[in-house]
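Researcher: Next entry in the queue.
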Amino acid sequence: MAQRKVSFAHGEYYHIYNRGNSKQKIFRDKSDYNRFIDLLFVANASNRFNHFNIRRMNDIFSWDRGKLLVAIGAYTLMPNHFHLLVRVPEHGDVSKFMQKLSTGYSMYFNEKYSRTGSLFEGKFKAQHVADDRYLKYLFSYIHLNALKLLDPTWREHGFAKKTKAVAFLDSYPYSSYGDYAGEKRQHQKILDPDQFPTYFPDQQSLMKELMIWITYAE
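Model: Structure for this entry, 218 residues:
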């Protein structure tokens, strides 16, 4: 089995991503997305947790997780893949977090859809983010990924109406964009922004950065 070339070091940042086996959908409906989002919270824990207990919890985001395995700065879920931006805290463990996340979601998905076999396309992929400019860019790249659902080729020709792109981002619930855009929701507890540089202290600064990249595509 091929070994992952990236090694994980405390205090460092990583872009984590994976997709469905043979590019198949890993999210088929709203409840699938919501289960993965729940797991982003509960899998990021040193405390043990039975994944099947999620369905019986009234407030998942109040669960005491103990020490976090990773600090999550941004995420986006797409029909057949996902993106995460993480930092490794002291005593953190990216591989353990991803094992808990992937196993928990695969168990849920296979049971729900009466399927067997691997859900994801091999091991998760990881890129070390050592450059500050690249780290800042990833906040835009990950959040703007959802625009592919509006127009798969937008990066080549941009949007004639940028307000349409912004409106789509505002309405897309399966990413951390809403948390940075000022929405008040429990999902915000998934993020640990204090572990990342303060690139976007307010909604306006984030929107300004995103508009630069949307415009740059033209």
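Model: Residues 47 and 64 are 8 Å apart (CA to CA).
Researcher: Noted, moving on.
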